[in-house]
Write a structure and sequence with these properties.
single chain, 479 residues, mainly alpha, globular
């Protein structure tokens, strides 16, 4: 024992094996922690969150550099937009071909449009009520005749070019098929896709090879989307850095009350209205928000819902929604279901009236509401489109001075984040709700997707395809 205590060679102590095991366990624990950290950092929402925070610091402390970073966000959005037309086209065509029933297509379309109109009207009404309660513009006493309107001249010119109802309907019909895809005109692409999908249903067996080719192409396109989405943190970080670097937090504080109102109303709408839709149709809003957290953060950073549309379509299919419902409802919702934009439009319109001491009776405000029911359609998707819609609305009602939009110019980008995220959540909930109402929702797939959402977040999301050149088209049912 004494030899062991003096550390003589060849003599082992009783503690040596235990100490060796302890050291090995410590190494294994450190390895597990390192692996867990790598796994956590590989998740897209974590990368995007880090990029947004970093972009905020760059924008605040290095504004001269930050204002040059907008091309990072624009480039990412352009990469996604170049894939939108073929992805939407393929999803709708294959979905309708698999559905095989023209009456079912019409029923889903009508149900979706009714849902969009009801929910977007609720968004407009809620925004109108909150802005009248909060009165963010009262006391500013801005003289509209002394406002320099040159800063919004470009927006006013674009607003004047907006077509009326007849022009809007005629614009749905493309000049040529190629022209619709070249311009990325979403409604025109949806029309072409619907017609081709129905034609392939009528073709029956002869249409199978065409559907199989389109489905295989769609699979390849989603793999390209997965590659592009790896750049999402760069795009989101660059967008936030540019916004803060150009406009600064000083601009935010000057209209903080209005911004607080828009953000609070958006949260209220999501929790009350969309939460009620979720409860009514039997799924959890909390789970939906958790499942789509990657897309929410990317939309917040880029201020564009189009940046995540292909990934949203893939994840909705993973969640158990049938491809036909996803293809019909989600792209249409991007045009007709802009809930966040509706909230912003009513609040911004009444804010300008309050700030410029323009009296609006209840009747006048109802007129504004009616006009916004029309002008709000087609304003979602692209950053800044809501501001053009607002200019078009004020120009058409001739009551609230258009020059008052100058007051919003500095903070519009910050409020755009709230309305874009609300639009995204609204369309996700709409697609799931309509899928459930149509009996086109697989609850077991949904539960599996909710359980594995961490793995899905870390992986490249590609929808499941059944074609593999042997797609089975159902029996054709022609009305």
């Amino acid at each position: 024992m004494a030899l062991a205590e003096r550390g003589c060679p060849g003599v082992r102590t009783a503690a040596s094996p235990a100490r060796g095991l302890t050291d090995q366990a410590a190494v294994e624990a450190a390895g597990r922690r390192e692996q867990d950290m790598k796994s956590w950092l590989s998740r897209l929402y974590v990368q995007v969150f880090i990029a947004i925070v970093t972009g905020g610091f760059v924008g605040y402390f290095l504004p001269d550099i930050a204002v040059t970073l907008q091309p990072l966000a624009d480039g990412f959005i352009k990469l996604i937009k170049m894939l939108l037309a073929p992805v939407i086209f393929g999803t709708i065509v294959v979905g309708i071909a698999k559905m095989g029933n023209m009456k079912e297509v019409g029923r889903i379309g009508v149900r979706a449009l009714i849902y969009f109109e009801v929910v977007s009207t609720l968004a407009l009404v809620i925004g109108l009520i909150v802005v009248n309660v909060m009165q963010p513009g009262v006391g500013m006493n801005i003289d509209a005749t002394h406002i320099d309107g040159s800063a919004i001249a470009a927006y006013a010119k674009r607003a004047e070019a907006q077509p009326g109802l007849v022009g809007f309907l005629m614009d749905i019909i493309p000049t040529t098929i190629v022209d619709a895809f070249a311009k990325g005109a979403m409604l025109q692409i949806i029309l072409i896709s619907l017609l081709l999908g129905l034609a392939l249903v009528q073709a029956g067996e002869r249409g199978k090879p065409v559907v199989a080719v389109i489905d295989s192409l769609l699979d390849a396109l989603f793999r390209v989307v997965a590659m592009v989405m790896r750049l999402a943190p760069i795009g989101a970080g660059g967008g936030v850095a540019f916004t803060i670097g150009k406009y600064g937090f000083g601009t935010v504080w000057s209209l903080a009350y209005l911004m607080l109102g828009v953000y609070a109303t958006s949260i209220l709408f999501v929790m009350l209205v969309l939460g009620s839709v979720c409860a009514w149709t039997g799924f959890s809003l909390t789970k939906v928000l958790s499942y789509f957290k990657d897309e929410i953060l990317i939309t917040f950073g880029t201020c564009s819902t189009e940046a995540v549309m292909p990934r949203m379509m893939a994840k909705l299919e993973r969640l158990g929604c049938e491809k036909s419902v996803v293809g019909l409802v989600l792209p249409t919702g991007y045009t007709f279901n802009a809930d966040g934009t509706c909230i912003y439009l009513t609040m911004a319109t009444i804010f300008v009236a309050q700030a410029t001491n323009t009296p609006l009776s209840i009747g006048d405000q109802l007129v504004v509401l009616g006009v916004l029911l029309l002008t709000s359609k087609g304003s979602a998707g692209v950053a800044g489109a809501g501001f053009v819609t607002l200019a078009a609305t004020l120009s058409s009602i001739h009551t609230v001075p258009v020059a008052g939009l100058v007051l919003l110019l500095g903070v519009d980008r910050f409020m755009n984040e709230a309305r874009a995220v609300t639009n995204l959540i609204g369309n996700a909930v709409a697609t799931i709700a309509i899928a459930k109402w149509e009996g086109a929702f697989d609850r077991q797939k949904a539960e599996a997707a909710y359980r594995d959402r961490a793995a899905i977040a870390a992986a490249d999301v590609v929808p499941e395809t059944e074609a593999r050149h042997v797609l089975q088209i159902p029996t054709v049912v022609v009305p």
